[in-house]
Design goal:
The strands form three sheets. The protein has a six-stranded mixed β-sheet with strand order 1-2-3-4-11-5. A three-stranded antiparallel β-sheet has the order 7-6-10, with no helix packed on it. With about 190 residues, the protein is α+β, with helices and mostly antiparallel strands. It starts with a helix and ends in a 9-residue tail after the last helix. The chain is built from four helices and eleven strands; from the N terminus they run αβββαβαβββββββα. A hairpin with a 2-residue loop joins β8 and β9. The protein has two domains: about 140 residues, Aminopeptidase (3-Layer(aba) Sandwich), CATH 3.40.630.30; about 40 residues, no CATH class. About 20% of the residues are buried. About 20% of the residues lie in helices and about 35% in strands.
């Protein structure tokens, strides 16, 4: 999963733990992974679900040698549902800054529920590398994993305005589909 995330996905980052991933093979060749996790904190709240009843499709990290991406993701969703029967809904995001409007989710009949403004990005002018939002602060110090650590000062970083992410949901059970379709908005076009 780490290799696929770092080499085949535009974010070049491994998502937060714990993860469940499914390897993809085409004609005996490994093409990457489709990865799920528990999602951001309180991911289930907008849907009035108990904790653990919603999950996030966090990475489709493929090398492009697979036959059809929507088929691959559909298979991964079925496997995920089978091994996680308590999860009722999947959430995923399409990053418009990366030129993604969610065509994959639209092809798979996911429900588009709106767009979210993402936080601005910060880049270290010395290295040219992006600094994660939890890895800088106004004071230059931040608590990480229970310890106070020195981090770059926000004022010393270059700010880059970010766009939005399109949010899609996929009810895993047909009985729930109508309930969530009420949240549906017209698919964005890109």
């Amino acid at each position: 999963m780490k290799y696929a995330c770092l080499h085949f996905h535009y974010a070049k980052r491994v998502p937060a733990q714990p993860m469940i991933g499914y390897s993809v093979f085409e004609n005996g060749e490994w093409c990457g992974c489709v990865i799920f996790n528990g999602g951001i904190r309180n991911i289930e709240k907008p849907f009035n679900l108990q904790q653990g009843r919603a999950a996030e499709l966090v990475r489709v990290a493929l090398n492009g040698k697979q036959h059809k991406t929507s088929r691959v993701v559909s298979m991964a969703v079925r496997l995920f549902k089978k091994s996680n029967p308590l999860v009722k809904i999947l959430v995923s995001y399409a990053d418009t800054d990366e030129g993604h409007n969610g065509t994959l989710y639209q092809a798979m009949n996911w429900v588009f529920i709106g767009s979210l403004k993402t936080g601005d990005a910060y880049v270290d002018p010395k290295t040219g590398k992006q600094v994660h939002s939890r890895a800088h602060s106004p004071t230059g110090y931040r608590k990480q994993f229970g310890e106070i650590k020195r981090v770059p000062k926000t004022s010393e970083l270059n700010r880059i305005a970010k766009g939005k992410k399109n949010k899609y949901i996929y009810p895993l059970y047909k009985a729930d589909r109508k309930k969530y379709e009420k949240l549906s908005k017209p698919y964005p076009r890109g």
